[in-house]
Fold this sequence. Notes:
By secondary structure, this protein is an all-alpha fold.
Amino acid sequence: MPPRWIEILEQHWGKILGIFLGLVFGLIAIVWGFLKALFVAICIAVGFYIGKRIDERTDWSRLWERLFGEK
């Protein structure tokens, strides 16, 4: 890659990723419909959240207790 492309990617990574994700969501919405695309987006967000917690080595028992524990 020419150095200019690398510079553009480094400076605008979030915008490029956002455009790509928007394009993918739009294509899924066209093919499957908006509600199914929304369901897929929610599943991706939940998967990202769980993966992030795994990477951070979160104590799942505390999270489980906070979500489903007795009050």
